[in-house]
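#struct-pred

JT: dropping the chains for the assembly here, can someone run the whole complex?
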Amino acid sequence: DVVMTQSPLSLPVTLGQPASISCRSSQSLAYSDGNTYLNWFQQRPGQSPRRLIYKVSNRDSGVPDRFSGSGSGTDFTLKISRVEAEDVGVYYCMQGTHWPPITFGQGTRLEIK
Amino acid sequence: QVQLQESGPGLVKPSETLSLTCTVSGYSISSDYFWGWIRQPPGKGLEWIGSIYRSSGSTYYNPSLKSRVTISVDTSKNQFSLRLNSVTAADTAVYYCTSIPSDALDVWGQGTLVTVSS
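RK: done, full complex below.
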């Protein structure tokens, strides 16, 4: 199974400041079709997860442009340019290249300082 | 828009079978996309259980659960279902139905807590 490792696991951020979450995979997520199936999800308190980013850097509909994804191979990053109060929650990376099984990172809890 | 809604018992006895149904509205599940299940033990992270691809009927399961899991589709009711056999307390979790791992669609149910206890 592909192991997804996120850091940090806890991320206190001041409102208006940037935030960055790292996700590393135990093997390259580049697929033979030219795509890299690395997604990012946000789970606000008491809510279901929702996808923010798919295939490394594509924002889902309705996702603010302060969220961006980047990376390749085994190293990926989710960045929030200016954290807002509504961004509090847990963020997960997920790989869909080498499946089954689909695997998730442990989650990074973002909180406001 | 596409909406998913889980239904099923909130309490299951150890060694029995957990059965959940996901009703899809706003889209015909026989058309396209993957449909699957994710679970989240209280206070913990996300675990993929399995998915079914409707156009082919192919099913994909987490190897860690494969011997106990069945995912099926009922196109006449626009529903898909999860059965997990021989449950233990470790199967206590919030269960989400979702369109994972479809690229073009990301939709989740509200989740349903299933507790395994006698």
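JT: nice. Chain A is about 0% helix and 50% strand. The CA atoms of residues 87 and 110 of chain A lie 7 Å apart.
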